[in-house]
Amino acid sequence: MDSLVPQVGGVYQVDEMMLHVRKEDNKTKMNLTNPENHTNRKFDNHYSWLWNLMDSSTRFWICSRISQKRDTNAGVALFKEMKKRAPLPSALIHDGLPTYDDAFNKELYNLKNPRVQNVRSVGSGHQGINSKVERLNETVRDRETVMHGLDMAKPTQDLVDAMRIHYNFIRPHQALKNRTPAEKAGIVLPFNGNKVESLMRLAAVNKNEYATMLGIRINKVKVTEHDTYTEIKPIQWLSKKEWREINEILVKNGFEWKSCNIDSCWIKSNIVP
Fold first, then answer.
1. I need a labelling partner for 196 at 20 to 30 A (CA). Which of 33, 51, 116, 171 fits?
2. Rg (Cα) of the chain, in Å, rounded?
3. What's the confidence (pLDDT) of residue 93?
4. CATH number at residue 145
């Protein structure tokens, strides 16, 4: 499902929240006197941070990541995930946490157009312009409360990913006139009867290791499987930035770039030594 490209509005909202994860052993205690604790709940060392990023106009929940620290590396990882899942936004709205500025400068800042605007919305609820992703955090919090906390970081990430898919593709939203965020974002799937069962079948049919590897960049290349090698060739002109991103991913997965004018492509041998 994450290889489907949403037609988003271009303004993204991002926010982080703390989750009670029982078997996590964080170095920093999160008691009621810790200024980072905005929940009025005592977590001690048993917590993780959840980072959520969504499109403002369609409410499409683009990505979510669990981390132990609320630092720049976690923010960069979230923005990298965003770039795999959706087009670059025209603006990114956050609550003014310095981590977002640092991560933005490392991963999204660009002197050339089109540029992403870094927007700080200092406030909460109706006082800020980040209210939609804050409402999303409340949805996650409701689930965490019902479950009386979560277990470990990896199962928590799996649970949040499942919630994201349900939120985008199954659950209609009153604010979207009872459409799902996916439908609002132009993704219309051939559901037949039970939506959850249909979604599972579609995910199984469309599972593709290269789509998983490249995310939305899969739409810029053509993958051809030969008997002895796999060829990945650009199907359109790639900017230097796009080429570097795709090349970095493919090289890490055993591909090599072969430059030959219009026939240039990435090659990987299928022969096991």
1. 51
2. 20
3. 96
4. 3.30.420.10
Cβ atoms of residues 85 and 216 within 8 Å: yes
Distance CA 9, CA 213 (A): 25
Q: Are residues 176 and 219 in the same domain?
A: no
Domain hosting 251: range is: 209-269
With 50 as the cut, is the pLDDT of residue 26 above it?
yes
Q: Is residue 262 part of a domain?
A: yes
Same domain, 173 and 108: yes
Question: Does the pLDDT value for residue 264 go beyond 80?
Answer: yes
Distance CA 266, CA 246 (A): 10
Helices 131-146 and 153-169 pack at an angle, to 10 degrees, of 120
Contact 247, 266 (CB under 8 A): yes
Reply yes or no on whether the pLDDT at 97 is more than 50.
yes
pLDDT for 126: 45
Q: Which of 192, 195, 197 is nearest to 172 (CA)?
A: 195
Q: Are 137 and 52 in contact (CB under 8 A)?
A: yes
pLDDT tier at 147, thresholds 50, 70, 90: confident
CB neighbours (10 Å) of residue 233?
A: 15
With tokens 């990913």, the residue in question is 161
pLDDT of 175 over the 80 cut: yes
Q: In terms of Cα–Cα distance, which of 150, 145, 139 is closest to 175?
A: 139
- Sheet harboring 117-120: ordered strands across? 61-67, 47-55, 11-20, 91-94, 117-120
